[in-house]
Amino acid sequence: MIEKLAKILGYDGVLCTPEDLAVYSYDGTFAEGVPRAVVLPETTGQTSEIVKLAAEARIPLVARGMGSGLAAGSVPINSESIVICFTRMNRILEIDAQNATVQAEAGVVTADLQAEVEKQGLFYPPDPSSIRHSTIGGNIACNAGGPRCLKYGVTSNYLLGLTVVLADGRILKTGGKPIKDVTGYNLTSMFASSEGTLGLITEALLRLVARPTQVRTALAEFDSLANASHTVNAILAEGIVPATLELVDQTAIVCIEEAMHLGLATDVEAVLIIETDGSDESTVVREIDAIGRICRESGARTVKVAKTGEERDGLWKARRSVGSSLARKAPNKLGEDITVPRSAIPEVVERLRGISAKHGLPIAIFGHAGDGNLHPNILFDKRNPEQWSKVQRMMGEIFEAALSVGGTLSGEHGVGVLKRPYFEHALGTVSVDVQRRIKHALDPLNILNPGKMFED
Ligand SMILES: Cc1cc2nc3c(=O)[nH]c(=O)nc-3n(C[C@H](O)[C@H](O)[C@H](O)COP(=O)(O)OP(=O)(O)OC[C@H]3O[C@@H](n4cnc5c(N)ncnc54)[C@H](O)[C@@H]3O)c2cc1C
What we know:
Layout: H1 2-9, E1 14-15, H2 18-23, E2 37-39, H3 44-57, E3 61-64, E4 82-85, E5 92-96, E6 101-105, H4 110-118, E7 122-123, H5 136-142, H6 149-152, E8 159-165, E9 171-175, H7 187-191, E10 200-207, E11 209-210, E12 214-222, H8 225-237, E13 244-249, H9 250-260, E14 270-278, H10 281-297, E15 300-305, H11 309-320, H12 322-327, E16 332-335, H13 345-359, E17 363-368, E18 373-380, H14 385-404, H15 423-427, H16 429-442
Parallel strand pairs: 2-4, 3-4
Antiparallel strand pairs: 1-2, 5-6, 6-10, 7-11, 8-9, 8-10, 12-14, 12-15, 13-14, 13-17, 16-18, 17-18
The chain binds flavin-adenine dinucleotide.
């Protein structure tokens, strides 16, 4: 098999030493699994040839971008698997300013794509906090969100078309530059959040918008976490839709400050990071002023509006480093991704605190509160069996808290392996049956990321 793969990719494109394989055995979670080989295609044609070989030999193929996933979706849990990693397919093929689209290969790093289109005054809004270490293909496969999704929507809202290698090696092209297209089923959408189980995405056509020229960013500090979560609804109830509305609780703030020394106040129970943007300065300023007033009326101790680009970058540095800062605090963290109706945020935040107190393990709460998307992160030591069994119970209780208010298990990270046991409970048997049938129709041999999303 290695010889056959090397014929397609050259020896440089096939990795199989223990050292190389170890590097591809993880994602952003604590899950691990060593693959049999790793392949690094450079073209759609090579990807198709690899899939044909794998189908013939019935070898599982695990798609991988940069392995930043938080659901163990790209972890090769089956030791027979070959990881197919798209980081060498990192070309931006076309920026079409007139139609406001960009055509890119799956392995382009999201921040690189954003920087390139911004040079032409255009804007690609989806901005996962992992923007510098995740790929367009991985973002599509997980339908990634991010802070800006409150105003701008998630990755699938920008997806116009795809090139996908199917499980039998055929190459499917979906969509195109027309904004409206109802010719047949919406296959493009079907691959968003398919987590590598339905096909291998090799190229994407993405919609762009005009780059906002005005931005204002504020940090509101609260002595009460409950007040901070009530404020989220108070802002949106006034009809203001900020670009971002992020919540970070005290546990997370303390970890960030210990790691980054950014001068954050560590005696507050929560902060909100709020940004308004647009092309008209007076509107953007009026909105941030109104938000400041609402925050103060809702109990904020202070509201600081960034005066310079540097101050703004500092606030975003703080927010984007939550994950890595928490990772320094305990040997392991389990980052959940529940999404609840916005009105239920205060109740769910209280329940999360209750779960933490009941089991005696810290839960840091942060996330895209404007979307109702919270990332409760349990900090623990997996080597301690008592803590690990508590974490498993806590995970179930966190999901129950979300489902009981009409929420869902995942807003942007996907199901992967970690949420698989709760998938059917959350969606019901009919939904899971329909999804299984789609999977079977597209991948009858079950070679594309088997064991992810569904229990095999
Ligand atoms: C610090 C940190 C912050 C994060 N913040 C956010 C955030 O704000 N918002 C958010 O949505 N996520 C966030 N994430 C999660 C993660 O970055 C996203 O899920 C991202 O989309 C994964 O991209 P990736 O290229 O790393 O994919 P991987 O982790 O390599 O893969 C993820 C899934 O996509 C599949 N896949 C990857 N490439 C392809 C392809 N070409 N074709 C088919 N399937 C493919 C894999 O099989 C797997 O199931 C964060 C992660 C970290 C570590």
